[in-house]
Amino acid sequence: MTDRTDALDRLFVNADAIIDSLGDEFTSQQFLRRVIHEQQHAYIDLLVACRGSDIPFDQAHQKIGGRPRR
Fold this sequence. Notes:
This protein has 70 residues and is mainly alpha-helical. It has 5 helices and no strands.
């Protein structure tokens, strides 16, 4: 398991509960804000894991966006 994979796993650990708490309609931005807020250390770890890239923020968010949804 890579540092990125580990951080992503921790970032989305409560994803189902967050989805349920957001109700029937919500945007992906609302979901991601909540996920990142609740798992701030995992988000920071993901950014750190992407620091070797010229664009670490974009790289991290590409990884987040590529995560499978239910």
